[in-house]
Amino acid sequence: MTERLQRPSRLPWIGAALVAGTALAGAAAWNRRQAERAERRAPASGRFVEVEGARLHYLEKGEGPAVVLLHGNGTQATDFVASGLFDLLARRHRVIAFDRPGFGYSSRPAGRVWTPSAQATILRAAFDVLDIDDAVVVGHSLGASVAMALAIESPEAVRALVLLGGYFYPTPRVETLFGLQALPLVGPVLNNTVVPLATRLLSRLMNRRMFSPHAVAPKFEALVPRGMRARPSQVGATAADGGMMVPAAFKMRRRYWEVMQPTTIFTGDADRVVDPGRQSMRLHREMAHSDLRILPRVGHMLHYAAGRKIAAVVAQYATPE
């Protein structure tokens, strides 16, 4: 009698899928609770403006010529408060620090690619509502790319640029691997389950890299808390901005010649996040009218180390002639 071949049982695979699904659902629920907890501990302290389907959160203080602050990837407007630059500038200026779309308490509507140009467009609309005109725009890291886009697309709104540790030219970046998080089905799963957990685990390591060679500022941990940066909404925005850094820089680099505003470029010679020579120094060579300030023994978070120098440049540009 011929023995009948037995087909492999599907039960182990079904069981594994159920276990994995349960684990992911549990992780998603835990991350939601942690996000709510983080927002209760660090509630929105500014105001909101609704433009083009987005609700932007911003901090405002002081009187005088307008100064706009744009934070880097993965952080939020309170980064400038933690560094002391926000209050320092507010002594002489009207200072507005925005949470860029998707960060802090600003929404990031779906259905559009949030390139620096797209972010500049929505910020320009916010300028109109908030009566911001002829502003000195200060951008840190990826915020510097948005500041450049603002100067190119809306030159009438930008009086001068102050660029801090910016990324301007396409170079290999580990952030390009974050493109997986932008995929329609895979992205939401990762952003709600695995990535927030990884962000929490790697937070201290990433902070040390940003602040190196200096120690991480205690106020950064207090005012830009890990819980806020690990929320599913924000890790998704961080990944999306990181994933488009190279293509956006590839496209924008052809238009830097259009920037006619006075520009000061700050960079730390010990920056481990953005290469000073391939970014800030190159931009200075290609923008003949720019001023380059190289800060010795300073890393990527240079607004913590050189707040007074940055404020002095802003005051120079903001003072009416």
Automatic annotation (TrEMBL):
Record keyword Hydrolase present: yes
GO molecular-function terms, A-Z: hydrolase activity
A Pfam family that the UniProt record links to this protein: Abhydrolase_1
Keyword field contains Transmembrane: yes
Domain AB hydrolase-1: 65-304
Keywords: Hydrolase, Membrane, Transmembrane, Transmembrane helix
Parts of the chain that traverse the membrane: 12-31
Protein name: Alpha/beta hydrolase
Organism of provenance: Robbsia betulipollinis
